[in-house]
Design a protein that fits this description.
Blueprint (H helix, E strand, L loop, with lengths): L2 H8 L9 E7 L7 H9 L4 E8 L12 H15 L7 E3 L15 H10 L5 E5 L4 H9 L7 E6 L11 H5 L1 H8 L4 E5 L1 H4 L3 E3 H7 L4 H18 L11 E3 L4 H7 L7 E5 L2 E2 L5 E2 L6 E5 L4 H16 L3
Parallel strand pairs: 1-2, 1-4, 2-3, 4-5, 5-6, 6-12
Antiparallel strand pairs: 7-8, 9-12, 10-11
């Protein structure tokens, strides 16, 4: 089935001028929240989702140059369960950059370059390591003028801290921050606000057809794998749908004043920030509308896949 047929069930037609050209870049098999964000992007009518690029998560234990393939397979599975057969998806880079100038070849990087050279701004929703975006920019610096990188990652300001998405490829984050591409950042203090309970997900997501059932069940299973008492992010009955910030920043009005401009920091070896007065200015979000973002996800899943 075509994506537009699924979107027709939602029954919303945004003004043509509001539409956004967008690529989703996801480490889809890393944990359990990327899957929710991928579906949220796909179910948002104003997004012209050009494709999805699989991202590695090599720094996580248990994988050796095969995490990108795990992400690729998970994207394929999601699209099948979502009954969307016309959304292209691509293999990204298999491992972190070897240096800030490294430009590894991949079909995902080629796809980003191809789309960025077309007319109009291209938004890239980065839900993991920035490797694929950095590789594309290093291979084709001219595309920076057309890119808006929605960066879900980095520690909170002003000092920063070790943060999972930066840890996956620090040099890629450094490469994108030093490029000419526009960046909208939702750091760890912002994306951690997208907290949900398992009961909430079972009530609102699980009933939404095969895709809703899978979204819930894979997260519940991951909760048992990931939980440990000393990890403060987990309570045993909660999760953070942190990757959904890349939808939130394009769904909310620009009138709220919930972001500020910051000089792109230098990411030090310990992954904390060093102030960089000469760095380019990037947009840093101070907050997002959690209620609006989560309710939008639930409503779109119910309209697209719930019982009629």
């Amino acid at each position: 089935m075509k994506r537009r047929e699924i979107l027709n069930r939602i029954g919303i037609t945004p003004p043509p001028a509001s539409r956004v050209r967008l690529i989703v870049d996801a480490d889809a098999k890393n944990e359990a929240d990327d899957q929710f964000a991928i579906m949220h992007h796909l179910l948002t009518p104003k997004f012209d989702v050009l494709g999805i690029v699989a991202t590695h998560f090599e720094q996580k234990a248990g994988y050796t140059c095969r995490s990108m393939e795990a992400s690729y397979g998970e994207i394929e599975k999601l699209l099948r369960l979502a009954d969307m057969d016309d959304v292209p998806f691509f293999r990204g880079c298999v491992s972190p950059l070897r240096s800030i100038e490294d430009a590894p070849e991949s079909e995902g990087a080629r796809f980003i370059i191809q789309e960025a050279r077309k007319e109009g701004k291209l938004f890239i929703a980065v839900q993991g390591a920035m490797t694929n975006v950095a590789a594309a920019l290093n291979r084709a610096p001219d595309i920076a003028q057309n890119l808006v990188v929605l960066w879900n990652g980095g520690g909170p300001y002003p000092k920063g801290r070790q943060e999972f998405n930066v840890m996956q490829d620090p040099d890629a984050a450094r490469a994108v921050l030093s490029s000419a591409a526009e960046i909208w950042q939702t750091d760890q203090s912002v994306y951690c606000a997208l907290e949900v309970s398992l009961a909430e997900l079972k009530s609102r997501v699980f009933p939404c057809g095969p895709i809703g059932r899978y979204l819930y069940e894979q997260l519940e299973a991951e909760n048992h794998v990931e939980y440990r008492p000393d990890f403060l992010l987990r309570s045993g009955e909660n999760w953070v749908l942190g990757d959904n910030t890349t939808i939130a920043v394009l769904l909310m009005s620009q009138f709220r004043g919930n972001w500020h401009m910051e000089h792109a920091p230098i990411i030090k070896e310990d992954l904390t920030y060093q102030e960089n007065p000469n760095g380019k200015l990037i947009r840093v979000y101070d907050s997002i509308d959690v209620r609006m973002t989560l309710e939008d996800l639930y409503a779109k899943l119910a309209l697209a896949y719930g019982k009629n």
